[in-house]
Records
---
Amino acid sequence: MHNLLLSASVFAIVATSTALPALSQTPPATEPAPQPTDQPTAPTQAPSETPATGSPSLERSPAAMPAGEETAEAATGQQTDQGNRAPRPQPEIGADWPFWGGDAQATRYSPLDQITRDNVDQLERAFIYRTGDMPTGSAEGKYAAETTPLKIGDQLVMCSAKNILIAIDAATGEENWRYDPQVSNDAIPYSASCRGVSAYTAPGLPDDAQCKTRVIEGTLDARLIAVDLRTGQPCADFGENGQVDLWQNIGEKVPGWYAVTAPPAIVRGVVVTGAQVKDGQAEDAPSGVIRGFDAVTGAFLWAWDLGRPGEHGQPPEGETYTRGTPNMWTTATADEKLGLVYLPMGNSSVDYYGSNRSELENQWATGLVALNALTGEPVWDFQTVYNDVWDYDLGSQATLLDFPTGEGETTPAILLPSKQGDIYILDRATGEPLTPVGEIETPQDPSVEPDYISDVQPTSEWHTLRKDELVEKDMWGFTPIDQLWCRIQFRRAGYQGFYTPPTADQRWIQYPGYNGGSDWGSVAVDTDRNIIVANYNDVPNYNRLIPREEADEMGLRPINEQPQGGEAGENADVGGAEGAGDPQAGAPYAIDVNAGWRNDVTGVPCTRPPYGGIRAIDLNTGETLWDTPIGTARRNGPFGIPSMLPFKIGTPNNGGSVVTAGGLIFIAAATDNLFRAIDIETGETVWQDVLPAGGQANPISYEVDGQQYVLIAATGHHFMETPIGDYIIAYRLPE
Amino acid sequence: MANHRADTLRLRGSDHLRGGGWWIFAIILAIVLSLFGLALFVGGVWLIFLGGSWYYALAGAGLLMTAWLLITSPGDALPVYGLVWMATVIWAFWEVGTDWWAQVPRLVAPTVVLVLILPTAIALGSRSKR
């Protein structure tokens, strides 16, 4: 009966202050006050830079230029730096949707109010645009575009699943231009995703200059690409013909191991990007290094390689950035005023085994890290898991807000959702929590590495989306027989509640699973009504560590040891779940994840619905205003047969929401392919439309000629098992 | 389908054929129920040994008994299964209340079985009384 042990009474709540061991290593960066001469700027670093080993088109990088040219570059570089490094006013949200997260604060809150609960039922499709980017060949079963466009001026700009940059007319959907960087299928890591692009207007360039405003994306094959917003032509001044190769200093180039899927953050003219390092391959994996590049020249400015504290240049010749370190695959948040960039860090490359990790990896993994965006020096860190062996990467973009701290006072704050469902609010200058953070004692045994598992873990005492621990009666199925089978599995598995340690001799239940809580869709914050809108998953994973010998017999091999274009035996992850047979080379165990804990025969989940919900939270108090399942059963059923049932069941969901001043939440995300409007006051769905493919993307709202539009990409998601499409669909009221 | 066929046969007014149709149906039903019952009983005993719910073993035993009675004494199959079904409903509401999605695996299949047993047992039961 040990599964019932961890009742709330067992949780020892420790004082808030002890929960923050990693805080404030360096003084608060209220005044980063960058001096260009102090910075390791690209030109002075350039001589040590080794040419890219990769793509032929990038061989002649600026670094490889002759000395004479380099000096000239240095001079102009310095000049541009001085022009760009001061904080600048950021584009406003309203008619435009200028940032991936809506506004510079990433609130996903649009001040538009033309569409309201009273007229939303009249919404009609304004246009459907099709990107034309659909999977072919080996990309089949790997598409999850997760597209969210920007809207700037009269254009929408976006990237497709395989990084084709596209601009269309925001009112008609007519294509203005496209630029195809020709990403090959073998560059697809787990999914072909390009969540978005970033735009930057260079203050130092004349208004009519090429790339005055440029669109910047990171690609699956690890390039930064900059094109002119007006024409789509590559920016001649950026890197080598509009490209910077991110494979530089990463090591052996293995396509698909190191890929960018999120839009970069741009702070004071510095483009900051991490990359997705494909999970669970090997301890000797590409580095999780975060790098800053000049937004105008593409020149390398700094690196934050957590394995080399204090060093921000490129590694010495013949070396690489520290291998296997925690990476940031999701979207960072730029803080133009403080000159910081907030990085939601993931875990080390091998997620489910930690004893071989360095102390530095343990220190920085699965935390929100504030970096000085001008130097790459960490300013503060807030860790959400100690010694993470559950793949609880921080997936959500953090949101900047002014948090009410009583008597009309507010503090510049940052809101951080986690996959465990905890919502933290931190002082963004110092990282100090503004809401109570507690510590719970967590189960220790059995574990394959008892010395590594932390005795305690932090939790938010202000708000969590996490539900009660599982009990046997939560097991589900379609008949008593499959339900019984799940109950037997529940009793046989190791489960001691939240943070049950991984085991090899038996399955263990991880709840919540790695899909969240909150994932990359992030939360929306209505800053007028002071309401946080959070959609979330509520699904366990059913896992087992696989001893190395058994993994070898299964043919599990890391990506760099697989035959070119081949896959790792029958456990290859084409269309499969992340972690469903990941080799974790270097560790004594591979990992097998049954994501969502599905019955192996029927495919029906072993736990009862709902599997996902959406919740409104009072920003002033942290209290739940309403909470309701999201997603109907229409597309779900046993053996993959759609039940056609129109009832709300609460499906897994992936993708976020947009909240409008009209009092509506627009969200798709669920696996029922419905795009819906929810009344923010009541949680009631007041309008919905059937999408032609899965809506696993963040919607946006914008205005053209006085008309409000709402837009969603119906591009589908292989892991969420929704139909793949290439549709960009805009809605508006009849004229 | 079986009901439809039975109605057609009844129109012909042949008692013998009507009973034969129900007998074939009863045998098929009894085989299916005994398979389900066996799975529930064996799995349910395993679950008891794992420290879990006793419901499945008991329900499995009830289904096995119902299947046996359908062949040997059809008139008694209905009251016995009726008890199993009522106990199932009480247990289901005790476990999860009005969480209707959680009731799907608990109530749907047992109620379908009730719907199948009801006319079979009545038809065969009344025939055997004559």
---
Amino acid sequence: MNRSHLSWLVIGVLGFALPPWYGLPTSSSAPWPPSGLLASFGVAPWLLPIGLFLLLPAPFVIVRSRLAGLALIAAGIGGLGYLVAQGLAIGLRGWSQPLLADLFGPLATGQRGMGAGGLIVAVSLLFYLTLGLAARGAMKGDRFTTGAIGLVVAAIVVFVFWPVSTILSQAMVADPGQSAIVALAERLTARDIWSVGCVVSATRCGVFWNSILLAVLTGVLTTLLGLAFALIASRTGFRFKTGLRLLTVLPIITPPFVIGLAVILLFGRNGTVTQFMAEYFGLTATRYIYGLPGILLTQVLAFTPIAFLVLVGVVQGIAPAMEEAAQTLGAGRWQTFRRVTWPLMRPGLANAFLVGFIESLADFGNPLVMGGGYEVLSTKIFYAVVGAQNDPGRAAALGIVLLALCVGAFILQRTWVGKTSYTTVGGKGFSGTSAALPRVVKYAAYGTALPWALFTFLLYGLILFGGFVENWGRNNSITLRHYITAFGLDWGQNGLLWTGRAWNSLFTTIQIAAVSAPITAALGLLTAYLLVRQRFAGQSTFEFMTMLSFAIPGTVIGVSYILAFNTPPVELTGTAAILVICFVFRNMPVAIRAGVASMSQIDKSLDECALTLGATSAQSVRRVILPLLRPAVVASLVYAFVRAITSVSAVIFLVTARYDMATSYIVGRVEIGDFGLAIAYSSALIVLMGIGILFIQLVVGERRIGRRDPVQPAARPAEVTA
Amino acid sequence: MTRSQHRHALASAVAGLALIAGASAASADDLTLYCSVQEEWCQAMANAFTKETGITVAMTRKSSGETYAQIKAEAANPKGDVWWGGTGDPHLQAAEEGLTAEYKPANFAELHPWAQKQATQSGHRTVGIYAGALGFAINTEILAKKKVKEPSCWADLIKPEFKGEIQIANPNSSGTAYTAMATLVQLLGENPAFDYLKQLHVNVSQYTKSGAAPAVAAGRGETAVGIVFLHDGVTQAINGFPVKVVAPCEGTGYEIGSMSIIKGAPNAKSAQRFYDFALSPAAQATGAANKSYQVPSNTKSVLPEQAPRMDKVKLIDYDFKKYGSSAERKKLLSRWDAEVGAQK
């Protein structure tokens, strides 16, 4: 125990003494900016107490005093508190509040954002606190658990709670002569949010009703379709499972706008299908697809795979023992499914619905392209920020409404899943076969999933084709022009020249996605572990906070990140780090959901067993839980990787010339109607993401549960004839 | 805490360091350009400036609304130097809020009066770099098929034969549509203008989000008429779509694409050089070379052949000061919301 105390003591002190305290040097004239220690005796004397806090527990730790725990807690709380206070109080140009200048007298210099030194010291102080707490007996003295909770909470407070509250507080900004409360109330009760005009009169309905209708429909449809695919993939003898899996993954790896464009080119007023219907069936070509039908279609196309990814792990994880027990007791296939399998899938269904619901609320690209006159919260928020109105207060108020919707969904989900146990993966050595699906369910699954798969396949064929034609829909002569513009290569004097316009953003995109995916998965699964396996005060609040950044539309997150991280103490704008962090905290909720769903199936006696045999919690996580969580690991890695490549609304404010992202380039092409290049670039991204996913699956591998092969109809002739 | 846990924490700390170290330091000869025109033009302009001065340009392209929101959010610690391009209103607004810096370019005298006026009324915090008139982008194929005469006046658009055939952006989200609304108010007077907009509403199939989207829709045959800036329609025609642009006979409003230096710019010197450069005829020629056919603001610049002839367009005396102000904007937008936007 003293070893870990000592290590963090050393790391903290070294972090204060050696690396530069501040990041982002102002000019190139100072090649190695001063460390915290150096700055304390030079430009920034106010840093000195931090060093003292770092040293405070040293004597206790070295002499192994029983007071070491208390000293660590004191140093941790004091040091972190002081670190934050000085960071917020002293900005770029001295005191950040005039009041402070009056109190303490003017300062000659200000300070920049924290750099490596600041980061190391902050992390060390955090672990001082958690180690101290563990030493005093918190969480049964488990250092791993207290450390993990501390790390996740701190990260979420800094990177989710702080920026989000910064921007939401804008809803209170009042016009002159108006109180903050009145301003907030006025914005929250605006007619365009709540109006029910479309039911009672000839006016439009408020965005709240539009959004909730769309989100519920999308949530239900994606969950059902996802379930159909999951049942086919894990419970039937369907032959083309690999193909099916591939197809369900395709929409997830599609950059935004592309599905919308393809749908317009098929079902738009001038679309192929519409024109065909008009010509042969005499129907008038109209703009029927714009509005709710179009958004719903594209959202279901886009989010079904996510529901599938959440559900497939759950369906596979249901231990056959219970189903076999039911059948032994004389239940038929239908009864078994209805009374055993279905209830066991509840956490999966609830999580899939929650993800679909929230994805739909936060989705921005599809309502933008397909919306027509149908307005939803996310588009309304976007244009309140960047539109002719330029009204961040309104955007914040709409953001609060959106958040409230998500909280509602979250609470409902919790109530429905309830406190029942869904544990089916226990430590007992069993082997059995999953029950065959009742015929009705099987054919229902086939009947919905297969046509959908076919439709998806068709759509992608068209998209691929669209990259190779001169001008899709008008001039269908084959050309490589778009690919050459995007990915041209040339031999120059110094070798290969990357002349294509897309290379720059492509390389950045892949690097950032590759960095953020593992961090997202690790942090997300760690959080899931804490949520499912540990009990601590404020857990529900904590769980809700993890969902915050997911529920808020990307645009709001983007602007909130600039507001929070453009000035010290944490100055990140213009770096690659801000993109990575943004992706990590935006995509983490899916990793958490996948982890929670899978983990609630794994019997706690498994880790207890490991603990009894002398393993630490960290070891039980690594050796017992992680291998059983492989589907969740794959799901979160894939999701994080892909989302980092395809998300657009959040990054649009964070990209810079050095760190430009592929999607922001594609959006520019779509804006001016250059669909060919947009589609060519998107196709290339799709192929790349496909390779990425295969790579992830190869590295993580499949989960192996001691079980016979799932149902093979051929092997059970008796039942087939019966 | 176990050993592997240490390793893990250390590894993440190191990753964090690497990311922070990757952040670049601004050196003396750099320029960060926020660009709000088409991507090709942005790129060409950045390259031309580097070629001329040797200054490295880091360019980011965003729409004018996005750029304005970003500059506002970054105001406490500005990261950009120059904001080049995009419709004039947000530039004027940024000037009004003191987000941009004063600078009088060396070649100011060479500019068209409209470009100079943009500068003088903002206290030289912004300047006009191009102009584009408002009008209609018409899909000739659809109209021929429906045997409907092409519209040539604002008054034509409210005729019953255009029911469901007109697209215009939502003035709440798009500067283009706001310009159109302000134009009608100046042309007809406020109350008749809203009567007109209510009648137009019956014919409008969709209020798009982005200003240029109706031009794309007209090109694709999703609508017969889009109310857009003429140069956006020209771009569709050049890309091979059956689009014709028409300036309304009663007269029309226009935008002044503008440029501003961001207040507190890290590279103020380079920003001023860019400002002077961007107003030169050589720099303004990059527009037409990259399929952007706005009218350049320097009197010595060559007017691109494909550009809609401003001398053939009947322009109103658009009051940018009044209709660019926050108060007037808020008034007109809330009236539009209540009387037009809320209708089915």
